[in-house]
Amino acid sequence: MSVTIDIAGLPQERIVFAPSPLAELGTALHILAEPGHHPGAHAWATATNASLKPDLADRLCEADFLWRTTFSDILMGFAGLRDASVQPGATLAEDLDLLDKLEDEEFVSAALEFTCSGLYGTDSLRSPLSDPALRERSIELASARGPQQRKFTERLLADPPAVRGWVRRLFEDCEQAFFADTWKRVRPQLVADAREKTELLRRRGLAATLEAVSPALSTDETGSVIDADKLSSARTSAVDPAVGPGVTFIPSVHQWPHLMVLHRYGWRPVVHYPVTGREPLPAPLSVEQVTLRMEALAHPLRMRLCRSLARAPYTTSELADLCSISSPEVSRHLAVLKKAALITARRRGRYVQYQLDLKVVGRLGSDFLETVLR
Asked: Nearest CA to 192 among 15, 9, 19, 41?
């Protein structure tokens, strides 16, 4: 599974790296709403949430579906403008000015993405503003998210300009409350990363640049597609003449571990990626590797083997004695674990000892690690 961006024939100068204040604000708001996704930012999230005035905190809760479970495309509204020369603004005000240029239909559909997800990425031009059935469906799905989401959705559908103004004031108040200081702190790193990736693209080409952006990104031998390894399947184009050719890469300090690809129909593709700090980010596993490991651990006997191998190295015959099964059967299960790169093998004379790789399983989750070490 992957999200693929068609870039066949796209001039290199149309591949742009640029920071976006609004996108960075969106990732910051996501951290405030879901600090569990970003344990490294827990201290910042705790301090920032504690400093918010009650009125602002309440308004953020009212609109948090824009950044909590999905990252709304309105946070990268520049991509919806049919002009390839338009890139993110240098300030939050500039980004919000670009967002204001979207038509109401585009803004509403993007803001209510969680109610229109079945149409996302398709060539459907239906809008809940003009389609009664989609309007009713949007309110129904918003209701399932809770009374705040329903209220917001009904307000947005009834009076888009008023709610758009409300959203802009919300973001401006966030800037005044905490984001101005945050942007001042992270902007130099984002600008430097965008400049570095642009130079790398010029000197070494697309494949090397994508590898530097994220191990989850790649291109084919001809350089005609950008492939993002994700738990979803979609395809979009950066060479659509109706939109304006181009793809924009937006670096983010607050984004890790997320890598997002905007692939809304009629919008320019955007790749929103985390930048590395002083500590290198762990390379993300492919979806295939994760699936292989989860399947390997789904068998109860292999879980028992992992429990033993987490404590000490064992040979095949020792494990057979421990589990009261035959050595060939142990060997078959060890082969599955080894293929998933969950165990290591080390020869000791004429014996081979196996042991669980705790660093690997630790990345699968602390609950699993605690279970096998219990």
From this structure: 19
